[in-house]
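Chain X:
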Amino acid sequence: MPTVITPKELLKWVPGVVLSSSEELGWKDMQQRSYRYKGQDVLIPPLDHFMIVYYFGGHTPMDRCVDEGWTRTACAPGDISLLTMSQDSHWNWTEDIDVSHLYLSNALMSRVAMDVMERPIEEVRLHDLLRTQDTILTAIVGAITNEVRSRGIGGALYVEALSMQLAIHLLRHYASVTFKESSAPGRLSQQQKKYLLEFIDAHLEESIRLDEMADAVGLGVWTFSRKFSESFDCSPHTFVTEQRIERAKRMLYSGTLSIKEIAYHCGFSDQAHLTRVLRSKLGVTPTQLRKTNNLE
Protein backbone atom coordinates (compact mmCIF):
# COMPACT_ATOMS: atom_id res chain seq x y z
CA MET A 1 0.00 0.00 0.00
CA PRO A 2 1.38 3.48 -0.87
CA THR A 3 2.60 5.73 1.92
CA VAL A 4 0.26 8.52 0.83
CA ILE A 5 -2.06 9.22 -2.10
CA THR A 6 -3.55 12.31 -3.71
CA PRO A 7 -7.29 12.96 -4.06
CA LYS A 8 -7.03 12.19 -7.78
CA GLU A 9 -5.57 8.75 -6.99
CA LEU A 10 -8.43 7.87 -4.65
CA LEU A 11 -10.47 6.54 -7.59
CA LYS A 12 -7.96 3.69 -7.97
CA TRP A 13 -8.71 2.54 -4.44
CA VAL A 14 -12.43 3.31 -4.31
CA PRO A 15 -13.95 2.57 -7.75
CA GLY A 16 -16.92 4.70 -8.70
CA VAL A 17 -18.48 6.96 -11.32
CA VAL A 18 -17.17 10.54 -11.26
CA LEU A 19 -20.12 12.96 -11.29
CA SER A 20 -18.18 16.23 -11.00
CA SER A 21 -14.58 17.40 -10.54
CA SER A 22 -12.78 20.70 -9.94
CA GLU A 23 -9.61 19.38 -11.54
CA GLU A 24 -9.64 21.78 -14.51
CA LEU A 25 -10.64 24.89 -12.54
CA GLY A 26 -7.28 25.89 -11.12
CA TRP A 27 -8.40 26.17 -7.50
CA LYS A 28 -5.79 26.62 -4.77
CA ASP A 29 -5.72 24.41 -1.64
CA MET A 30 -9.20 23.00 -2.34
CA GLN A 31 -10.42 20.17 -4.59
CA GLN A 32 -13.91 18.78 -5.15
CA ARG A 33 -15.11 15.52 -6.64
CA SER A 34 -18.54 13.89 -6.59
CA TYR A 35 -18.93 10.12 -6.97
CA ARG A 36 -21.62 7.50 -7.42
CA TYR A 37 -20.53 4.41 -5.51
CA LYS A 38 -21.78 0.85 -5.40
CA GLY A 39 -21.65 -0.87 -2.02
CA GLN A 40 -18.08 -2.02 -1.34
CA ASP A 41 -15.41 -2.88 1.19
CA VAL A 42 -12.23 -0.80 0.69
CA LEU A 43 -8.89 -0.13 2.34
CA ILE A 44 -7.78 3.44 1.64
CA PRO A 45 -4.16 4.57 2.01
CA PRO A 46 -3.49 7.88 3.81
CA LEU A 47 -4.54 10.95 1.82
CA ASP A 48 -2.33 14.02 1.53
CA HIS A 49 -5.41 16.23 2.12
CA PHE A 50 -8.13 16.49 4.74
CA MET A 51 -11.36 14.96 3.41
CA ILE A 52 -15.00 15.91 3.95
CA VAL A 53 -17.63 13.50 2.62
CA TYR A 54 -21.14 14.87 2.07
CA TYR A 55 -23.88 12.29 1.34
CA PHE A 56 -26.56 13.49 -1.07
CA GLY A 57 -28.01 10.29 -2.56
CA GLY A 58 -28.89 6.87 -1.15
CA HIS A 59 -29.09 5.35 2.34
CA THR A 60 -26.63 2.78 3.62
CA PRO A 61 -25.20 1.15 6.74
CA MET A 62 -21.63 2.44 7.09
CA ASP A 63 -18.66 0.95 8.93
CA ARG A 64 -15.23 2.55 9.17
CA CYS A 65 -12.02 1.55 10.92
CA VAL A 66 -9.45 4.21 11.86
CA ASP A 67 -6.50 3.42 14.15
CA GLU A 68 -7.79 -0.13 14.64
CA GLY A 69 -11.12 1.10 16.02
CA TRP A 70 -14.36 0.38 14.13
CA THR A 71 -17.31 2.79 14.07
CA ARG A 72 -20.75 1.78 12.81
CA THR A 73 -23.60 4.04 11.75
CA ALA A 74 -26.08 4.60 8.92
CA CYS A 75 -25.54 7.40 6.41
CA ALA A 76 -28.21 9.25 4.46
CA PRO A 77 -28.57 12.51 2.49
CA GLY A 78 -27.45 15.46 4.63
CA ASP A 79 -24.91 13.45 6.64
CA ILE A 80 -21.20 14.29 6.68
CA SER A 81 -18.06 12.23 7.40
CA LEU A 82 -14.64 13.66 8.22
CA LEU A 83 -11.23 12.05 7.68
CA THR A 84 -8.02 13.71 8.78
CA MET A 85 -4.94 13.96 6.57
CA SER A 86 -2.35 11.14 6.50
CA GLN A 87 -4.74 8.62 8.03
CA ASP A 88 -5.27 5.18 6.52
CA SER A 89 -8.82 3.87 6.82
CA HIS A 90 -11.05 0.87 6.09
CA TRP A 91 -14.61 1.56 4.87
CA ASN A 92 -17.53 -0.80 4.31
CA TRP A 93 -21.01 -0.01 3.01
CA THR A 94 -23.61 -2.16 1.29
CA GLU A 95 -25.92 0.16 -0.67
CA ASP A 96 -25.46 2.58 -3.59
CA ILE A 97 -24.65 6.15 -2.55
CA ASP A 98 -23.89 9.53 -4.15
CA VAL A 99 -21.33 11.66 -2.31
CA SER A 100 -19.47 14.94 -2.69
CA HIS A 101 -15.85 14.97 -1.50
CA LEU A 102 -14.02 18.15 -0.51
CA TYR A 103 -10.26 17.93 -0.06
CA LEU A 104 -8.48 20.67 1.92
CA SER A 105 -4.70 21.00 1.78
CA ASN A 106 -2.56 20.94 4.89
CA ALA A 107 -1.11 24.28 3.77
CA LEU A 108 -4.56 25.88 3.98
CA MET A 109 -5.44 24.41 7.38
CA SER A 110 -2.05 25.29 8.87
CA ARG A 111 -2.08 28.85 7.49
CA VAL A 112 -5.57 29.54 8.80
CA ALA A 113 -4.75 27.96 12.17
CA MET A 114 -1.62 30.13 12.41
CA ASP A 115 -3.59 33.27 11.57
CA VAL A 116 -6.46 32.71 14.00
CA MET A 117 -4.36 31.32 16.86
CA GLU A 118 -1.26 33.47 16.29
CA ARG A 119 1.10 30.61 17.17
CA PRO A 120 3.35 28.37 15.05
CA ILE A 121 1.50 25.18 14.08
CA GLU A 122 3.05 21.73 14.36
CA GLU A 123 0.02 19.70 13.23
CA VAL A 124 -3.70 19.94 12.56
CA ARG A 125 -5.85 16.82 12.84
CA LEU A 126 -9.59 16.39 12.24
CA HIS A 127 -11.60 14.38 14.72
CA ASP A 128 -12.53 10.81 13.79
CA LEU A 129 -16.15 11.48 12.85
CA LEU A 130 -18.07 9.06 10.66
CA ARG A 131 -21.45 10.78 10.81
CA THR A 132 -22.61 14.26 11.75
CA GLN A 133 -25.04 16.89 10.54
CA ASP A 134 -23.98 20.52 10.47
CA THR A 135 -25.89 23.25 8.63
CA ILE A 136 -22.78 25.40 8.13
CA LEU A 137 -20.72 22.54 6.72
CA THR A 138 -23.64 21.54 4.52
CA ALA A 139 -24.02 25.08 3.15
CA ILE A 140 -20.31 25.47 2.36
CA VAL A 141 -19.98 22.01 0.80
CA GLY A 142 -23.09 22.70 -1.26
CA ALA A 143 -21.82 26.07 -2.46
CA ILE A 144 -18.44 24.65 -3.51
CA THR A 145 -20.03 21.65 -5.21
CA ASN A 146 -22.46 23.90 -7.08
CA GLU A 147 -19.57 26.10 -8.20
CA VAL A 148 -17.99 23.11 -9.96
CA ARG A 149 -21.20 22.64 -11.90
CA SER A 150 -21.99 26.31 -12.64
CA ARG A 151 -18.41 27.58 -13.17
CA GLY A 152 -19.43 31.17 -12.59
CA ILE A 153 -17.35 34.31 -12.93
CA GLY A 154 -14.69 34.73 -10.24
CA GLY A 155 -15.00 31.08 -9.29
CA ALA A 156 -11.46 30.62 -7.94
CA LEU A 157 -11.74 33.69 -5.70
CA TYR A 158 -15.22 32.64 -4.55
CA VAL A 159 -14.01 29.17 -3.61
CA GLU A 160 -10.94 30.60 -1.85
CA ALA A 161 -13.23 32.66 0.39
CA LEU A 162 -15.44 29.64 1.10
CA SER A 163 -12.36 27.53 1.84
CA MET A 164 -11.24 30.01 4.49
CA GLN A 165 -14.68 29.90 6.13
CA LEU A 166 -14.65 26.11 6.00
CA ALA A 167 -11.19 25.86 7.54
CA ILE A 168 -12.13 28.17 10.41
CA HIS A 169 -15.34 26.24 11.10
CA LEU A 170 -13.42 22.95 11.15
CA LEU A 171 -10.80 24.40 13.49
CA ARG A 172 -13.50 25.68 15.84
CA HIS A 173 -15.52 22.49 16.07
CA TYR A 174 -13.82 19.44 14.57
CA ALA A 175 -10.04 19.72 14.91
CA SER A 176 -7.19 19.42 17.38
CA VAL A 177 -4.09 21.56 16.93
CA THR A 178 -0.54 20.92 18.14
CA PHE A 179 1.66 23.99 18.47
CA LYS A 180 5.36 24.44 17.81
CA GLU A 181 7.60 26.08 20.34
CA SER A 182 8.50 29.52 18.99
CA SER A 183 12.03 30.72 19.76
CA ALA A 184 11.40 34.21 18.44
CA PRO A 185 7.78 35.33 18.86
CA GLY A 186 6.73 38.02 16.42
CA ARG A 187 9.61 37.43 14.01
CA LEU A 188 10.46 35.03 11.21
CA SER A 189 12.83 32.26 12.25
CA GLN A 190 16.28 32.03 10.69
CA GLN A 191 15.12 29.04 8.67
CA GLN A 192 12.06 30.93 7.43
CA LYS A 193 14.27 33.86 6.42
CA LYS A 194 16.51 31.47 4.51
CA TYR A 195 13.56 29.91 2.67
CA LEU A 196 12.11 33.33 1.91
CA LEU A 197 15.34 34.80 0.52
CA GLU A 198 15.86 31.72 -1.64
CA PHE A 199 12.29 31.98 -2.94
CA ILE A 200 12.60 35.69 -3.74
CA ASP A 201 15.93 35.23 -5.50
CA ALA A 202 14.58 32.32 -7.57
CA HIS A 203 11.50 34.31 -8.67
CA LEU A 204 12.88 37.83 -8.93
CA GLU A 205 12.26 37.89 -12.69
CA GLU A 206 8.54 37.40 -12.01
CA SER A 207 5.78 39.28 -10.23
CA ILE A 208 5.98 38.02 -6.63
CA ARG A 209 2.69 38.02 -4.75
CA LEU A 210 2.32 38.37 -1.00
CA ASP A 211 0.50 35.04 -0.66
CA GLU A 212 3.31 33.27 -2.54
CA MET A 213 5.90 34.58 -0.08
CA ALA A 214 3.68 33.56 2.84
CA ASP A 215 3.32 30.06 1.36
CA ALA A 216 7.11 29.78 1.00
CA VAL A 217 7.51 29.97 4.77
CA GLY A 218 4.28 28.16 5.72
CA LEU A 219 2.37 31.13 7.12
CA GLY A 220 -0.92 32.85 6.48
CA VAL A 221 -0.78 36.21 4.74
CA TRP A 222 -1.72 38.28 7.80
CA THR A 223 0.76 36.53 10.11
CA PHE A 224 3.49 36.64 7.46
CA SER A 225 3.07 40.38 6.90
CA ARG A 226 3.29 41.10 10.61
CA LYS A 227 6.32 38.85 11.17
CA PHE A 228 8.03 40.15 8.04
CA SER A 229 7.76 43.76 9.18
CA GLU A 230 9.13 42.81 12.60
CA SER A 231 12.05 40.97 10.98
CA PHE A 232 13.05 43.38 8.20
CA ASP A 233 11.68 46.77 9.35
CA CYS A 234 9.91 47.29 6.03
CA SER A 235 7.01 45.89 4.01
CA PRO A 236 7.42 42.81 1.78
CA HIS A 237 6.82 44.97 -1.31
CA THR A 238 9.59 47.39 -0.32
CA PHE A 239 11.97 44.52 0.40
CA VAL A 240 11.36 42.85 -2.97
CA THR A 241 11.88 46.16 -4.76
CA GLU A 242 15.19 46.59 -2.92
CA GLN A 243 16.26 43.11 -4.02
CA ARG A 244 15.40 43.98 -7.62
CA ILE A 245 17.48 47.16 -7.35
CA GLU A 246 20.48 45.31 -5.89
CA ARG A 247 20.40 42.75 -8.69
CA ALA A 248 20.06 45.50 -11.29
CA LYS A 249 23.08 47.30 -9.83
CA ARG A 250 25.20 44.14 -9.99
CA MET A 251 24.17 43.47 -13.57
CA LEU A 252 24.74 47.08 -14.63
CA TYR A 253 28.20 47.03 -13.09
CA SER A 254 29.10 43.83 -14.96
CA GLY A 255 28.30 45.55 -18.25
CA THR A 256 27.46 42.37 -20.19
CA LEU A 257 23.73 42.84 -20.77
CA SER A 258 21.65 45.63 -22.24
CA ILE A 259 19.53 47.74 -19.91
CA LYS A 260 16.39 46.23 -21.44
CA GLU A 261 17.64 42.71 -20.64
CA ILE A 262 18.59 43.73 -17.12
CA ALA A 263 15.11 45.15 -16.54
CA TYR A 264 13.63 41.78 -17.55
CA HIS A 265 15.96 39.70 -15.37
CA CYS A 266 15.22 41.88 -12.34
CA GLY A 267 11.44 41.69 -12.63
CA PHE A 268 10.75 45.21 -13.89
CA SER A 269 8.01 45.52 -16.49
CA ASP A 270 10.29 47.27 -18.98
CA GLN A 271 13.35 49.53 -19.25
CA ALA A 272 11.31 52.62 -18.45
CA HIS A 273 10.09 51.02 -15.22
CA LEU A 274 13.66 50.21 -14.17
CA THR A 275 14.71 53.79 -14.97
CA ARG A 276 11.88 55.27 -12.89
CA VAL A 277 12.69 53.10 -9.87
CA LEU A 278 16.44 53.78 -9.97
CA ARG A 279 15.88 57.50 -10.38
CA SER A 280 13.42 57.49 -7.47
CA LYS A 281 15.52 55.34 -5.12
CA LEU A 282 19.11 56.19 -6.13
CA GLY A 283 18.78 59.49 -7.95
CA VAL A 284 20.41 58.14 -11.12
CA THR A 285 19.39 56.42 -14.34
CA PRO A 286 20.68 52.94 -15.33
CA THR A 287 23.02 54.53 -17.90
CA GLN A 288 24.43 56.96 -15.34
CA LEU A 289 24.94 54.17 -12.82
CA ARG A 290 26.79 52.07 -15.35
CA LYS A 291 29.00 55.00 -16.39
CA THR A 292 29.77 55.86 -12.78
CA ASN A 293 30.99 52.35 -12.11
CA ASN A 294 33.12 52.35 -15.27
CA LEU A 295 34.79 55.60 -14.18
CA GLU A 296 35.67 54.04 -10.86
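Chain Y:
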Amino acid sequence: MDICQLYNRLVSKPPSGKSCIVDQKISEQGLKTSFKNCSIGVYPHAAFKDVPFHSHDFFELVYVHTGCCVNLVDDQEIPLKEGDICLLNTHAFHTLRCSEPDHTIIFNLLVGKEVLSSSHFQLLSYNDFVANFFLNSLQKQRAEKNYIVFSKQSEEEKCTELCQQIITEYYENEGALYQESKLIYLFDCLLIELIRNYQQQHNLSIGKKSTKYKISEVIEYMGEHCDTITLQSLADHFCYHPKHFSRILRETTGQNFSELLTDLRMSRAKALLEDSQLSITKVMNQVGYHNYTWFGNQFQKQFGKAPSEYRVN
Protein backbone atom coordinates (compact mmCIF):
# COMPACT_ATOMS: atom_id res chain seq x y z
CA MET A 1 0.00 0.00 0.00
CA ASP A 2 1.33 3.43 -0.96
CA ILE A 3 1.30 5.55 2.21
CA CYS A 4 0.95 8.85 0.34
CA GLN A 5 -2.06 7.61 -1.62
CA LEU A 6 -3.62 6.23 1.56
CA TYR A 7 -3.15 9.55 3.34
CA ASN A 8 -4.73 11.51 0.47
CA ARG A 9 -7.67 9.12 0.51
CA LEU A 10 -8.16 9.50 4.27
CA VAL A 11 -7.65 13.26 4.53
CA SER A 12 -9.71 15.75 2.55
CA LYS A 13 -7.64 18.85 1.95
CA PRO A 14 -9.26 22.32 1.77
CA PRO A 15 -8.64 24.75 -1.10
CA SER A 16 -4.99 25.78 -1.35
CA GLY A 17 -3.88 28.36 1.19
CA LYS A 18 -6.76 27.77 3.58
CA SER A 19 -6.77 26.07 6.97
CA CYS A 20 -9.39 25.20 9.51
CA ILE A 21 -9.62 24.92 13.27
CA VAL A 22 -10.61 21.60 14.81
CA ASP A 23 -12.84 21.51 17.87
CA GLN A 24 -10.97 19.87 20.75
CA LYS A 25 -13.80 17.42 21.55
CA ILE A 26 -14.02 16.32 17.91
CA SER A 27 -10.25 15.82 17.82
CA GLU A 28 -10.21 13.68 20.96
CA GLN A 29 -13.21 11.64 19.80
CA GLY A 30 -11.47 10.94 16.49
CA LEU A 31 -8.36 9.71 18.26
CA LYS A 32 -10.27 7.44 20.64
CA THR A 33 -12.41 5.87 17.92
CA SER A 34 -9.20 4.95 16.06
CA PHE A 35 -8.59 2.14 18.55
CA LYS A 36 -11.56 0.13 17.15
CA ASN A 37 -11.65 -2.10 20.25
CA CYS A 38 -7.93 -2.73 19.76
CA SER A 39 -4.96 -1.64 21.89
CA ILE A 40 -3.21 0.02 18.93
CA GLY A 41 -4.75 2.62 16.64
CA VAL A 42 -3.66 4.76 13.70
CA TYR A 43 -4.86 8.28 12.96
CA PRO A 44 -3.77 10.51 10.05
CA HIS A 45 -2.89 14.03 11.14
CA ALA A 46 -4.48 16.63 8.86
CA ALA A 47 -1.49 18.97 8.48
CA PHE A 48 -3.65 21.90 7.34
CA LYS A 49 -5.83 21.81 10.46
CA ASP A 50 -5.07 23.83 13.58
CA VAL A 51 -5.58 21.29 16.34
CA PRO A 52 -5.86 22.85 19.81
CA PHE A 53 -3.62 21.78 22.67
CA HIS A 54 -4.94 18.55 24.13
CA SER A 55 -3.95 15.51 26.19
CA HIS A 56 -5.19 11.94 26.51
CA ASP A 57 -4.73 8.80 28.59
CA PHE A 58 -2.87 6.78 25.96
CA PHE A 59 0.58 7.01 24.38
CA GLU A 60 1.10 8.58 20.98
CA LEU A 61 3.89 8.19 18.42
CA VAL A 62 4.05 10.99 15.88
CA TYR A 63 5.52 9.58 12.65
CA VAL A 64 6.54 12.14 10.01
CA HIS A 65 6.30 10.34 6.67
CA THR A 66 7.11 13.38 4.53
CA GLY A 67 7.74 17.06 5.19
CA CYS A 68 8.35 18.59 8.60
CA CYS A 69 6.51 20.03 11.58
CA VAL A 70 6.93 21.43 15.06
CA ASN A 71 5.59 19.36 17.95
CA LEU A 72 4.59 21.59 20.86
CA VAL A 73 4.76 19.62 24.11
CA ASP A 74 4.07 21.45 27.36
CA ASP A 75 6.37 24.48 27.03
CA GLN A 76 8.79 22.87 24.54
CA GLU A 77 9.03 23.27 20.76
CA ILE A 78 10.36 20.12 19.11
CA PRO A 79 11.17 20.31 15.38
CA LEU A 80 10.54 17.06 13.50
CA LYS A 81 11.65 16.19 9.98
CA GLU A 82 10.90 13.37 7.54
CA GLY A 83 11.43 9.97 9.13
CA ASP A 84 11.48 11.24 12.72
CA ILE A 85 9.33 9.65 15.43
CA CYS A 86 8.26 11.42 18.62
CA LEU A 87 6.92 9.34 21.52
CA LEU A 88 4.50 11.31 23.72
CA ASN A 89 3.67 10.34 27.28
CA THR A 90 0.13 9.88 28.51
CA HIS A 91 -1.41 13.22 29.56
CA ALA A 92 1.28 15.23 27.76
CA PHE A 93 -0.22 18.60 26.76
CA HIS A 94 0.58 18.90 23.05
CA THR A 95 -0.29 19.88 19.50
CA LEU A 96 1.35 19.99 16.04
CA ARG A 97 2.07 22.92 13.73
CA CYS A 98 2.96 22.48 10.05
CA SER A 99 4.35 25.38 7.99
CA GLU A 100 4.07 23.47 4.68
CA PRO A 101 0.89 21.40 4.97
CA ASP A 102 0.71 20.58 1.25
CA HIS A 103 4.01 18.72 1.50
CA THR A 104 3.57 17.13 4.92
CA ILE A 105 2.18 13.69 5.74
CA ILE A 106 1.98 12.66 9.39
CA PHE A 107 0.42 9.62 11.03
CA ASN A 108 -0.23 9.28 14.74
CA LEU A 109 0.28 5.77 16.11
CA LEU A 110 -1.86 5.44 19.23
CA VAL A 111 -0.86 2.93 21.88
CA GLY A 112 -2.91 1.85 24.89
CA LYS A 113 -1.36 2.16 28.33
CA GLU A 114 -1.40 -1.61 28.77
CA VAL A 115 0.92 -2.05 25.77
CA LEU A 116 3.53 0.58 26.64
CA SER A 117 3.55 0.05 30.39
CA SER A 118 6.50 -0.57 32.66
CA SER A 119 5.67 -4.28 32.71
CA HIS A 120 5.77 -4.37 28.91
CA PHE A 121 9.18 -2.69 28.94
CA GLN A 122 10.30 -5.39 31.37
CA LEU A 123 9.42 -8.04 28.77
CA LEU A 124 12.14 -6.52 26.59
CA SER A 125 14.58 -6.56 29.47
CA TYR A 126 16.94 -9.46 29.90
CA ASN A 127 20.15 -10.34 31.67
CA ASP A 128 22.30 -7.87 29.76
CA PHE A 129 23.71 -4.96 31.73
CA VAL A 130 24.23 -2.71 28.71
CA ALA A 131 20.79 -3.29 27.14
CA ASN A 132 19.05 -2.72 30.47
CA PHE A 133 21.07 0.43 31.12
CA PHE A 134 19.87 2.06 27.89
CA LEU A 135 16.32 0.75 28.40
CA ASN A 136 16.20 2.29 31.89
CA SER A 137 17.74 5.51 30.59
CA LEU A 138 15.07 5.76 27.90
CA GLN A 139 12.28 5.22 30.42
CA LYS A 140 13.68 7.91 32.72
CA GLN A 141 13.92 10.43 29.90
CA ARG A 142 10.34 9.71 28.86
CA ALA A 143 9.15 10.24 32.43
CA GLU A 144 11.10 13.48 32.92
CA LYS A 145 10.38 15.23 29.61
CA ASN A 146 7.00 13.77 28.58
CA TYR A 147 8.48 12.98 25.15
CA ILE A 148 11.38 11.32 23.35
CA VAL A 149 12.51 12.08 19.80
CA PHE A 150 14.00 9.30 17.69
CA SER A 151 15.72 10.88 14.70
CA LYS A 152 16.01 9.08 11.40
CA GLN A 153 19.47 7.50 11.22
CA SER A 154 19.74 6.43 7.57
CA GLU A 155 17.86 6.02 4.33
CA GLU A 156 17.40 2.32 5.10
CA GLU A 157 15.67 3.05 8.38
CA LYS A 158 13.98 0.00 9.90
CA CYS A 159 11.80 2.16 12.16
CA THR A 160 10.32 3.92 9.12
CA GLU A 161 9.59 0.58 7.48
CA LEU A 162 7.90 -0.75 10.62
CA CYS A 163 5.74 2.38 11.00
CA GLN A 164 4.57 1.88 7.43
CA GLN A 165 3.83 -1.80 8.09
CA ILE A 166 1.72 -0.86 11.14
CA ILE A 167 -0.22 1.70 9.11
CA THR A 168 -0.75 -0.77 6.26
CA GLU A 169 -1.86 -3.58 8.59
CA TYR A 170 -4.27 -1.27 10.38
CA TYR A 171 -6.06 -0.09 7.21
CA GLU A 172 -5.67 -3.04 4.84
CA ASN A 173 -6.62 -5.85 7.20
CA GLU A 174 -9.37 -4.34 9.33
CA GLY A 175 -11.27 -7.15 11.04
CA ALA A 176 -8.87 -9.81 9.75
CA LEU A 177 -7.90 -12.78 11.87
CA TYR A 178 -5.18 -11.94 14.43
CA GLN A 179 -4.98 -8.30 13.36
CA GLU A 180 -4.48 -7.02 16.90
CA SER A 181 -1.83 -9.66 17.60
CA LYS A 182 0.07 -8.66 14.48
CA LEU A 183 -0.19 -4.95 15.31
CA ILE A 184 1.25 -5.60 18.78
CA TYR A 185 3.98 -7.77 17.26
CA LEU A 186 4.92 -5.04 14.76
CA PHE A 187 4.87 -2.46 17.55
CA ASP A 188 7.20 -4.64 19.66
CA CYS A 189 9.59 -4.82 16.69
CA LEU A 190 9.37 -1.04 16.35
CA LEU A 191 10.05 -0.55 20.05
CA ILE A 192 13.14 -2.78 19.86
CA GLU A 193 14.49 -0.82 16.87
CA LEU A 194 13.81 2.49 18.64
CA ILE A 195 15.74 1.27 21.70
CA ARG A 196 18.62 0.21 19.44
CA ASN A 197 18.66 3.65 17.81
CA TYR A 198 18.57 5.27 21.23
CA GLN A 199 21.59 3.21 22.29
CA GLN A 200 23.53 4.23 19.16
CA GLN A 201 22.75 7.90 19.76
CA HIS A 202 23.69 7.80 23.46
CA ASN A 203 26.58 5.32 23.46
CA LEU A 204 29.07 8.17 23.75
CA SER A 205 32.82 7.85 23.61
CA ILE A 206 34.76 8.99 26.64
CA GLY A 207 38.43 9.67 27.17
CA LYS A 208 41.27 10.90 25.00
CA LYS A 209 41.86 9.80 21.42
CA SER A 210 44.51 7.30 22.50
CA THR A 211 42.28 5.68 25.16
CA LYS A 212 38.69 6.09 24.00
CA TYR A 213 36.00 3.91 25.52
CA LYS A 214 32.30 3.61 24.82
CA ILE A 215 30.02 4.20 27.77
CA SER A 216 28.61 0.72 27.06
CA GLU A 217 32.06 -0.75 27.86
CA VAL A 218 32.05 1.00 31.23
CA ILE A 219 28.52 -0.19 32.03
CA GLU A 220 29.35 -3.75 31.01
CA TYR A 221 32.43 -3.80 33.26
CA MET A 222 30.47 -2.36 36.19
CA GLY A 223 27.73 -4.93 35.72
CA GLU A 224 30.13 -7.85 35.60
CA HIS A 225 31.83 -6.71 38.83
CA CYS A 226 28.87 -5.12 40.60
CA ASP A 227 29.38 -7.21 43.74
CA THR A 228 32.84 -5.79 44.54
CA ILE A 229 33.45 -2.78 42.33
CA THR A 230 34.36 0.65 43.74
CA LEU A 231 34.89 3.98 42.04
CA GLN A 232 38.63 3.58 42.66
CA SER A 233 38.80 0.12 41.04
CA LEU A 234 36.67 1.27 38.09
CA ALA A 235 38.85 4.33 37.50
CA ASP A 236 41.99 2.23 37.80
CA HIS A 237 40.71 -0.24 35.20
CA PHE A 238 40.10 2.55 32.68
CA CYS A 239 43.28 4.44 33.68
CA TYR A 240 41.65 7.55 35.16
CA HIS A 241 41.75 9.46 38.40
CA PRO A 242 38.58 8.66 40.42
CA LYS A 243 37.41 12.29 40.64
CA HIS A 244 37.89 12.84 36.91
CA PHE A 245 36.16 9.57 36.03
CA SER A 246 33.26 10.40 38.36
CA ARG A 247 32.74 13.66 36.49
CA ILE A 248 32.86 11.85 33.13
CA LEU A 249 30.19 9.39 34.29
CA ARG A 250 27.93 12.22 35.42
CA GLU A 251 28.34 14.09 32.12
CA THR A 252 27.72 11.07 29.89
CA THR A 253 24.99 9.23 31.81
CA GLY A 254 23.34 11.88 33.99
CA GLN A 255 24.05 9.71 37.05
CA ASN A 256 26.91 9.49 39.51
CA PHE A 257 28.80 6.27 40.23
CA SER A 258 26.64 5.28 43.22
CA GLU A 259 23.38 5.79 41.30
CA LEU A 260 24.63 3.77 38.33
CA LEU A 261 25.89 0.98 40.56
CA THR A 262 22.59 0.78 42.46
CA ASP A 263 20.64 0.50 39.19
CA LEU A 264 22.93 -2.25 37.92
CA ARG A 265 22.80 -4.16 41.20
CA MET A 266 19.00 -3.95 41.33
CA SER A 267 18.68 -5.13 37.71
CA ARG A 268 20.95 -8.07 38.48
CA ALA A 269 19.03 -8.89 41.67
CA LYS A 270 15.71 -8.82 39.80
CA ALA A 271 17.08 -11.18 37.15
CA LEU A 272 18.36 -13.61 39.79
CA LEU A 273 15.02 -13.59 41.62
CA GLU A 274 13.25 -14.35 38.36
CA ASP A 275 15.58 -16.95 36.88
CA SER A 276 17.28 -18.76 39.75
CA GLN A 277 16.43 -20.74 42.87
CA LEU A 278 18.94 -18.84 44.99
CA SER A 279 17.72 -17.66 48.37
CA ILE A 280 17.13 -13.94 48.73
CA THR A 281 20.14 -13.73 51.05
CA LYS A 282 22.39 -15.30 48.40
CA VAL A 283 20.96 -13.01 45.73
CA MET A 284 21.68 -10.05 47.99
CA ASN A 285 25.28 -11.19 48.51
CA GLN A 286 25.87 -11.85 44.81
CA VAL A 287 25.02 -8.25 43.93
CA GLY A 288 27.24 -6.79 46.64
CA TYR A 289 24.88 -6.18 49.58
CA HIS A 290 25.33 -7.56 53.09
CA ASN A 291 22.59 -5.71 54.96
CA TYR A 292 19.14 -7.20 54.25
CA THR A 293 17.23 -4.12 55.39
CA TRP A 294 19.23 -1.81 53.12
CA PHE A 295 18.95 -4.22 50.19
CA GLY A 296 15.20 -4.60 50.71
CA ASN A 297 14.69 -0.83 50.87
CA GLN A 298 16.63 -0.27 47.65
CA PHE A 299 14.72 -3.03 45.86
CA GLN A 300 11.37 -1.68 47.08
CA LYS A 301 12.30 1.80 45.90
CA GLN A 302 13.31 0.53 42.46
CA PHE A 303 10.49 -1.92 41.73
CA GLY A 304 7.71 -1.06 44.17
CA LYS A 305 7.84 -4.47 45.87
CA ALA A 306 9.95 -6.18 48.49
CA PRO A 307 12.22 -8.96 47.13
CA SER A 308 10.04 -11.65 48.74
CA GLU A 309 6.87 -10.19 47.19
CA TYR A 310 8.54 -9.90 43.79
CA ARG A 311 9.58 -13.55 43.79
CA VAL A 312 6.08 -14.75 44.83
CA ASN A 313 4.46 -12.77 42.01
